[in-house]
Amino acid sequence: MIIRDAKFIISAVKPEQYPEGDLPEVALAGRSNVGKSSLINRLLNRRGLARTSGTPGKTQQLNYYLLNEDFYFVDLPGYGFARVPKDVKAQWGKMIGTYLDKRENLKLVMQLVDIRHAPSKEDVEMYQYLAHYARPHAIIVTKADKVARGQYQKHVKIIRQTLGVLPGTPIILTSAETGLGKQEVWDLIAKYVGV
Ligand code: GTP
Ligand code: MG
């Protein structure tokens, strides 16, 4: 896929702020710091489009990026960040839940997990949620550059087993650092948004 044009549209916190129209949306979900914004930048070859940070919890709204006037990336707030007050956490959970549950434009959820860690309780909850609501989804394993190639399969197995990944669910290894997996992710996206 050739992305001629990518632009930030809006940070939404409630459904009234979601863009109007019926363009398809691809959402990126995952823990704070897993690499959602970095993956967006890598996929689009735009270094600073999605704000990334070493400080978890940077993305606190649903950030919409319009690509080629054809479809949107939706960068969801990261979950599982310990140093956030309980009420703020509950609000994020509700915000993400409302979006995943109700949004008809949503065609694919990419759930990101860090290759180095076994999925957390929240990762498992998110996965079960996607499976339960039968949202088309894929597991995107991030930061592959952080482990040796010979260790990939061991880590993927832990992720698959801990999440209880359904048979047939794509699992793609990526690195925003090296660009690993970029083509595979684009092929996946193309399949679901039909562009
Ligand atoms: P929130 O917005 O807080 O939810 O985080 P996020 O999931 O958007 O993570 P972000 O893209 O901001 O990345 C967090 C940190 O991980 C940054 O310091 C990135 O540079 C780093 N990072 C992201 N992807 C990779 C990767 O593939 N490899 C390596 N080595 N570092 C990465
Ligand atoms: Mg982010």
Q: Which descriptor suits the 3D outline?
A: globular
Name the helicity range. Answer: 25-40%
Distance between the termini: 8 Å
CATH superfamily: P-loop containing nucleotide triphosphate hydrolases
Structural class: alpha/beta
Bound heterogens, unique = guanosine-5'-triphosphate, magnesium ion
CATH topology: Rossmann fold
State the strand order across the main sheet: 1-3-4-2-5-6-7
What is the name of the CATH class?
A: Alpha Beta
Could you characterize the architecture of this molecule?
The chain is of the alpha/beta class and 195 residues long. It has one domain (6-193): Rossmann fold, CATH 3.40.50. Helices cover 32% and strands 22% of the residues. The protein contains five helices and seven strands, in the order ββαββαβαβαβα. It has helices at 36-44, 86-102, 121-132, 152-163, 182-193; strands at 6-12, 25-30, 62-67, 71-75, 106-114, 137-142, 171-173. Strands 1-3-4-2-5-6-7 form a seven-stranded mixed beta sheet, with helices on both faces. The longest helix has 17 residues, at 86-102. The radius of gyration is 16 Å and the shape is globular. The chain starts with 5 loop residues before the first strand and ends with a helix. The mean pLDDT is 91. The structure holds guanosine-5'-triphosphate (GTP) and magnesium ion. The site of guanosine-5'-triphosphate (GTP) has 23 residues, from α1. Magnesium ion binds next to α1.
Which features characterize this protein?
195 residues, alpha/beta, Rossmann fold, 7-stranded mixed β-sheet, globular, binds guanosine-5'-triphosphate, binds magnesium ion
